[in-house]
Design a protein that fits this description.
Helix content: 40-55%
Strand content: 25-35%
CATH architecture: 3-Layer(aba) Sandwich
Radius of gyration: 17 Å
Number of strands: 9
CATH topology: Aminopeptidase
Number of helices: 9
Distance between the termini: 41 Å
Oligomer: single chain
Number of domains: 1
Shape: globular
Structural class: alpha+beta
CATH superfamily: Gcn5-related N-acetyltransferase (GNAT)
CATH class: Alpha Beta
């Protein structure tokens, strides 16, 4: 479903019928961006693994895709609501303590985040930062629908540092490892902390799924900067 056409690019929202195409895109882009040479068998194995996870782990999934004028995938992201019956792979892959999963509220997993620079022409590259933020906004908005929601993600180390500059300061909850072509860290965040980012980028939110309260709107920059500093110290 087309969410908004920006001219040089467009934002789409998909359901599970696009899982295969999105997983193929994510695997290919990760290996290409990180300059990893893998054979076809290994690549197909990763795609099948991802597709299996998408089908069996989540009770609700929201896929967002940025396309260029030719309709080619430029960027993707997914917000998945964990069904709390299947084991999240992030627990086994990164040896995360089980207590992180014993949460009464909804647990969201943000994943399948990839941006393909090879599909951007000169004009589209001028929008790359906005594209990056737009994908984040539309995935994170689902985490923020309820105050007691939390999220997990496997995040490329360099991307994790870039996201901190946007004042999304997540907590690292396990050791990093090589995962789909790069050093990756498991991260955790809460609805309360993520709403600051959403409020400051609400102009990018084309698909509204939450309402902002005055209490959320009045959070100060200085308070968030203090929080980020604490999180960075924790991750050091």
């Amino acid at each position: 479903m087309l969410v908004k056409d920006f001219g040089e690019y467009a934002l789409h929202r998909f359901s599970n019928d696009m899982t295969q195409e999105i997983c193929e895109f994510v695997v290919r882009v990760n290996y290409e961006v990180h300059k990893m040479q893998v054979d076809l068998i290994e690549s197909e194995r990763d795609v099948l693994k991802f597709c299996h996870e998408e089908t069996n782990l989540f009770s609700v999934t929201h896929y967002y895709v940025i396309t260029n004028k030719s309709g080619e995938f430029v960027g993707t992201i997914r917000a998945g609501l964990w069904n709390k019956t299947s084991n999240l792979p992030i627990i086994q892959e990164f040896e995360i303590p089980q207590e992180y999963m014993l949460h009464n509220g909804n647990v969201w997993h943000i994943g399948r985040f990839a941006v393909d620079p090879s599909k951007m022409d000169e004009n589209l590259r001028k929008h790359r930062v906005v594209i990056f933020k737009t994908l984040l906004v539309h995935a994170i908005q689902h985490v923020c629908t309820q105050d007691d929601n939390i999220m997990f993600a496997e995040c490329d180390r360099k991307l994790h540092e870039k996201v901190k500059l946007l004042k999304i300061c997540s907590t690292e909850i396990g050791k990093s490892k090589q995962y789909i072509g790069s050093e990756t860290v498991p991260i955790f965040n809460t609805s309360y902390n993520l709403k600051y980012f959403l409020w400051n980028h609400k102009h990018l939110q084309c698909s509204h799924v939450i309402d902002y309260t005055s209490q959320q709107n009045n959070r100060t920059e200085s308070a968030k900067q203090k929080y980020c500093s604490q999180e960075q110290d924790l991750a050091a």
